[in-house]
Request: fold
Amino acid sequence: MKIGLQIPNFTLAGGSEALSRYLREVARRAEEGGFASLWVMDHFFQIPHLGPVEREMLESYTTLGFLAACTSRIELGTLVTGVTYRHPGVLAKTVATLDVLSGGRAWLGLGAAWFEREHRALGIRFPTVRKRFEMLEETLRICRQMWSDDNGPFEGEHYQLQETLCVPRPLRQPPLMIGGMGERKTLKLVARYAQACNFFEHAGLKTLKSKLEVLKQHCQSLGTDYTAISKTVVGQTALRDRSAAEKLLDKLAQLKELGFDQAIYAIKDPSDFKSLDLFAEKVIPALT
Reply:
């Protein structure tokens, strides 16, 4: 089982001037510590359960480009990009660029978006849930087309592209990860288009098991190979001592038993390098 690291908090004691140094250090520790992937949220304001909206929030793809330059092996992505934030043609080009410059390490995490306040504040259109899911499906189709040999037009209800030209193409096809656990729409899109899903660890093992069963049913209905889809969870933790690391290992064993192959953890306190060290010393080696 793999472990990923999400960076959710950019509010530092040293202020904004300390951010580049901090991110470089986190990236170094994550890569040297054996983390498989490094993720940032795709938001423009801090989200409510982590702090006031006025707190620091970096634009995600600029940040990923910086992290790519600080690393050489760890995979990089957003957890996850709101489909409303960028035109899909521009998004596909952005992720392709990240993949080329990182040496083939980019993922594209996508979701239907939810944070209405930042949409309204920045003048970003915030359609109904139904329309956002329609936009999500068209975006998935556009990205797949732009990263292929097909440079022709795309005609959808929400997006029309005269050419889907993307040169250079990604070095590899960036895995498409869809975030969320909705049974009727989200998991069906995973089965139809994605290489990975992302669930919420806090939902609990019983719910996670049920959601995987629904995903399996969608795969069977669509003729998709369920085993080829990476099953990931995202959670938040802080490891204070060896006992906490052992408890986490027990949880990871249960998640692996359900079929999950990667757990991505956010560490809320940006100064908490102790948790990173315990992951590297006690958790990640025990999983290999």
Remarks:
- The chain has a mean pLDDT of 97.
